[in-house]
Amino acid sequence: MTAPLTGSEDLPRTLGELRASGHRERGVKAEIRENLLAALAAGADIWPGIFGFEDTVLPQLERALIAG
Asked: What is the mean pLDDT for each group of 10 consecutive residues in the chain (68 residues)?
């Protein structure tokens, strides 16, 4: 997972800069999966603000996202 950018001054301004930055194009499905795996590995609170579904819906959702 890449670190989030902090401001517009950090963003590439040209296609050449974007390519040089190592950016790789990926679909939303792949990005969500990669972000979930990184959050799980880091032990982060993956679903902040969602209560009551820790033992039912959320594990199923996580498995579905990981499975692709």
From this structure: 66 92 91 95 94 94 93
